[in-house]
Amino acid sequence: MNPAADRRVAVVTGGARRLGRQLCLSLAARGFDVIIVYRSSDHDARTLEQEITASGARARALKVDVADKRAVAAAFAGIGAREGCVDLLVNNVGNYNPQNVTALDPDVWDDTLASNLSGAYYCCYGALPLMPDGGSIINIGMAGLEGIRANTRGADYYVSKTGLLVLTRALAAAYAPRQIRVNMVSPGQLENSVDLPPPEELSRWVPMGRSGTLGDIAQAVQYLLDAAYVTGQNIDVAGGYRL
Questions:
Q1: Residue 49 CB-half CA count within 13 A
Q2: Which domains does the chain have, with CATH numbers?
Q3: What's the rounded Cα separation, in Å, for the pair 225 and 138?
Q4: What amino acid positions are annotated as catalytic residues?
Q5: pTM here?
Q6: Calpha distance 58→31 (Å, rounded)
Q7: Which terminus of the chain faces fewer neighbouring Cβ atoms within 10 Å, N or C?
Q8: What mean pLDDT comes out for the span 181-191?
């Protein structure tokens, strides 16, 4: 993309589909050059890249398995050489396997932790040396992390996102002297969630009575980009889910 010096670069992992796609579009509309990091959704990534560039913004699709630390290191080395910096990193990967913990296969556990937690750390490690003072990292979590409870389905996912919250706060404290802010946005039941309750039951779980939209999450991300004195925070965007 070779952006001009006054352009900002955003890297979004899991950027080709669903929430990642929405975030890429909203960041491009805000003026970011967007790097769409994806693992296997080639068609979706290329289509999104074309849609963003057709709007007059800049985008580049980059195929990377974030669970592979060598691949991540090579990707950020390439970003450093080509784009020159990373102003914003959004760690959006969130593999979810709604298996009961009594039947959870160790290989599934390892894959989830590698993608959702280790992968986010690898990306932070690669991005931070390229990030100017005042940059930002936004991690995508899950609602209810502040009140840890037993979750027998998807325990590997909940563990990975709880660990990501701890990492978020550690990095926020460590990089505050450089005015780099690290925060988390945690969706609840989204309109495209795998385990969304039926409409007639939704209000039992979500006090506001509706599922969240991808736009709701993008709005919270936009808020954090403007909130220059907010760091180390987790914002539940969930309509009261799991209060």
A1: 17
A2: 8-237 (3.40.50.720)
A3: 9
A4: 157
A5: 0.94
A6: 9
A7: C
A8: 94
